[in-house]
Amino acid sequence: MVDTTKTVHFGILGCAEIARKVARAIDLAPNATLCAVASRSKEKAEKFAAENGFPASVKIYGSYDRLLEDPGVDAVYVPLPTSLHVRWAVLAAGRKKHVLVEKPAALDVAELDQILAAVESNGVQFMDGSMWLHHPRTAHIQQLCFVPSSAKSIGPIHFIHSTGTLPATPEFLASNIRVKPELDGLGVLGDLAWYCIGASLWAKGYQLPITVTALPDVKRNSAGVILSITVSLLWDQPIQTLATIHCSFLSHISMDLVICGSDGSVHLRDFTIPYQETSASFDVTFGAKFVDLHIGWNVKPEEVHVVNELPQEALMVQEFSRLVAGIKDCGSQPSTKWPEISRKTQLVVDAVNKSLELGCKSVSL
Q1: Residue 22 phi, psi dihedral angles, 5° rounding
Q2: 312-330 and 17-28 helices, crossing angle to 10°
Q3: CA distance linking residue 342 with residue 112, whole number of Å
Q4: Is pLDDT larger for residue 153 or for residue 358?
Q5: What is the widest separation between alpha-carbon atoms in the chain?
Q6: Virtual CA dihedral for 95, 96, 102, 106, nearest 10 degrees?
Q7: What is the rounded (10 degree) CA torsion for 208, 219, 246, 234?
Q8: 337-357 and 109-121 helices cross at what angle (nearest 10)?
Q9: Measured on CA atoms in the order 9, 15, 19, 25, is the torsion positive or negative?
Q10: pLDDT tens digits, residue range 222-263?
Q11: What are the chain's domains?
């Protein structure tokens, strides 16, 4: 039987690999339960359920429409290719289902605005699947390092650097949906760069940059999908801040985030997926100087450890479910925080594409 003590009942539209991770997260979250899964064929959905050990109480559907018709489903997780997000997220919202959509949220801001208009008009919650934002390390860094009144604030931010790279296999480069223009036409820009753009915006309090520039080192496959890209973002308020981003399917794995302020710096080496599921760390340095003769430093980075009871994807599901339960059971309004974060990230993604179209000229926002 479905656990009725858990407030929010989820359905999953599609059987992508990432859906295995989020299905487990739904099971781990204390306020959510999986009640249905759908694929384009019932056989595929049944195979997915069996491989992941879903209980017999989880309903299996051979079409996405059938799942959306199920009155027992409160919310849907959408791990479909990005080209399908706008169709199924809008249909889900029209059926009063709350929408947790995999990132990138859409192919461009025009599509995302269709989704956001649908969720707003139907009074349902929207969130994209940027899991790292829900890890307690993220909030800890924000409180410790970015609050001006904090004893250890790194001060005004001057520079941000982030990377998201992985060495894709030949099979990935030949057949993965992220390199197929008809499925996920944004390539690495929508996949790994979504995190890095989001991290840069997060560090700047979600203030949009004044200019976005793609560098000319971009690499594409034969179908024109971006496999590797470097981007710079520039802010002029309250002080000038530059962010550099490099993302690639062609380099050894890296997930670096470095934030440099006037008085200190923060460094994460695993910011999107922590090295361990139950804890994460970051390095913070304050007041660093070179010693006499420049033969060393006066301080070493302090390694700060943050323990989490649940993995970050389960914390994401828990937060989403908390918001959904507030709407469903208490008459609360949907939170606008998460749609706004997604939209600002999408605006920067669009600006990167525009810069590429213009021959790597700067694009103003």
Answers
A1: -75, -30
A2: 60
A3: 9
A4: 358
A5: 72
A6: 70
A7: -30
A8: 160
A9: positive
A10: 999 999 999 999 999 889 999 999 999 999 999 999 999 999
A11: 8-132 (3.40.50.720), 136-312+346-364 (3.30.360.10)
CB 255 within 8 A of CB 269: yes
Residue bearing tokens 């062609």: 250
**Spatial contact of 154 and 248, defined as CB atoms under 8 Å apart:** no
Measure the CA–CA gap between 122 and 114, rounded to whole angstroms.
Answer: 12
| Alpha-helix residue ranges (DSSP H) falling in the chain | 17-28, 42-51, 64-68, 85-94, 109-121, 136-141, 170-175, 181-184, 192-203, 312-330, 337-357
- Contacts (Cβ under 8 Å, ≥6 apart) of 287: 263, 264, 298, 299
pLDDT tens-digit readout, 219-232: 999 999 999 999 99
Nearest to 271 by CA among 260, 259, 257: 257
CB-based contact 232:181 (threshold 8 Å): no
- Is-contact 184 76, C-beta < 8 A? no
The beta strand positions in 196-331, using DSSP E, are: 211-214, 219-220, 226-235, 241-248, 250-254, 257-261, 264-268, 279-286, 302-307
Integer Cα distance of 322 and 228 in angstroms: 37
Q: How many CB atoms lie within 10 A of CB 170?
A: 7
For tokens 């947790």, the residue is 100
- Radius of gyration over every alpha carbon of the chain, rounded to an integer in angstroms: 21
Q: What whole-number distance in Å separates Cα of residue 43 and Cα of residue 62?
A: 7
How far is CA 1 from each of CA 4, 6, 37, 159, 215, rounded to the nearest angstrom? 8, 12, 15, 52, 54
Strands 241-248, 75-78: parallel, antiparallel or unpaired by DSSP?
unpaired
Could you tell me which residues come within 8 angstroms of residue 340 by beta carbon, excluding any fewer than 6 positions away?
206
Provide the phi-psi class of 155: left if phi over 0, else alpha when psi is between -120 and 50, else beta. Answer: left
Q: Is 0.70 topped by the overall pTM?
A: yes
> What digits encode the pLDDT tens for the residues 174-195?
999 999 999 999 999 999 999 9
